[in-house]
Amino acid sequence: MSLRRLLIPVRSSIPGSNPAKLSVLTYNMLSPYYMWPQVYTYVPEKYKNWNYRHKLLQKEILGLYRADIMCLQELTSLDYQQYWKKVLMDKYNYGSKYIAKPPPRYWDRPLSEMDGVGVFYDLNQFDYVSSTGIYLNDLFGTFDLKEQDYLEHKVLQLTDGQGNPTEKMTLSDVLKSRNQVCMFVSLRHKATNSFLVVINTHLYWKYDEVKLAQCMIIMRRLSKIIKDLLIGVQDTTYNKVKIVFAGDMNSPRDSLVVKFLKGDAVSHQNLKLINPMRPYLNRVLYDNIPQDLFIHTCFSGKLKGIFDYICYHNEDMAPRKVLGVPQDLKVNPEMGLPNALHPSDHIPIMMEFQLL
């Protein structure tokens, strides 16, 4: 059975006349160091092997679905430096930027084996402008006094991997103790002379309060990045800046996180949250495709769902095609990954846009 999936045409709400196209891919690669024995009991040993999985990742990312913009999560520092950065530059003329997560307390491996997120971009189509990587546990300067007071007094009941209650911590302490990161890369699109800020992140896997706070940190940093871009580049205006926000959000389509990112007012714990960057984001890729096209994007044994997103604004980009679901997963959506054909427990998500 082939790994190849088809790009399926989708309806766009804005029939743009600009011929410029842009393809975006996001993919959680499943770090070899997160192949927990107690979680992936259903995976035969030969398909857990990193060399086996890496060859499939190469085939997918380089051979089948090489997009103009690629956002990869759970990419280790070692793998980025020794393989992806070099191969994509030397063979395909792609630039890249990467940030590794700070190691958690339990980490006893070399720092080079810690994972992070990387953004890759086709230098035939883009000029590199600037980049910024941030740690989502750095709360300094992000929240005002009222918000800080909420973070410091909101108590969360933490749970273990099976959902059993463990300890209680304030939201502020939980945020500071987690190690998620985010990468921003600003590019100039050569054909249209517009600017694209690409954002790649991998949010924490549970607690809506934590994920919403992490999103607010990202959006407030994005606001500063856009302002700096306008100052640093001559004759650039707000309407020339487009945003692509991609990654593993660990949140289903009806979640508060996704509603917040799309600009909806989210009421949570007596707070009304609104994305400060909603003029730049109002859609996710699932808004323009059949509701039943994707059942899951993560096919881990016990954890399945739609967690991977590409966010944009429909006045900046019109979706034209989306990468379909592998046939074997359409037939058996409860299958557990990785397996012989799929190197990660996530599938790559890709959409082709027409720039407006």
UniProtKB/TrEMBL annotation:
Q: Where is the signal peptide?
A: none
What top-level branch of life does the organism fall under? Eukaryota
Q: Where is the Endonuclease/exonuclease/phosphatase domain?
A: 25-346
Q: Which GO terms describe its molecular function?
A: 3'-5'-RNA exonuclease activity
Q: What is this protein called?
A: Endonuclease/exonuclease/phosphatase domain-containing protein
